[in-house]
Amino acid sequence: MLATIGPIPGPDSEAEYAYETLWNGMRVIAHLPGNGSVRLLSPTGADVTAQYPDLHALPGLLPGPQAVLDGEIIAVDGEGRPSVERLQQRMSLHHPQAVKHALGDLPVQLMLYDILYLGEPTLQLPYTARRDLLDDLRLTTPQIRVPAGWPAPAQQALEQTRHEGYDGIIAKRLTSPYLPGRRTRDWIKIKHLPPT
Question: Which residues form the ATP-dependent DNA ligase family profile domain (predicted)?
Answer without folding.
Answer: 101-191
